[in-house]
Amino acid sequence: GHIVSPPGEVCEVCIAGEMSKEFERVNKIYNKIREMRDAQCEIINSNQYNNKQEKDILCGSIVAFHECMELLQAQYMTLGKSENDQSR
């Protein structure tokens, strides 16, 4: 049912948006990633997939999306601080 982009691609889009400071667009992507992650979690938890390899792939996607979100948050904080705090 759920088709998602490779996590790496999503991250590249996130970072590109951050670097050009398109905060609104990036925030939409951020929310989309969270939605996709939640959808993936539901699929796995519903035991729809009994195949271990398929489960591992889905779990990997969730971890990658989560890491991308953390990276995005770090980028936000770095940009926010660099504008107000030049000591870092």
List the helices and strands and how they pair.
Layout: H1 7-19, H2 23-45, H3 52-84
Protein architecture, described:
The chain has 88 residues and is an all-alpha fold. The chain has one domain. Helices cover 78% and strands 0% of the residues. The protein is built from three helices and no strands. It has helices spanning 7-19, 23-45, 52-84. It is elongated.
- Which spans have pLDDT < 50 for at least 5 consecutive residues? none
Task: Count every beta strand, where a strand is a DSSP E run of 2 or more residues.
Answer: 0
Overall mean pLDDT stands at: 66
Please indicate the count of domains.
1
How far is the first residue's CA from the last residue's CA?
Answer: 45 Å
**Helix-strand pattern, N to C?**
HHH
Largest sheet: none
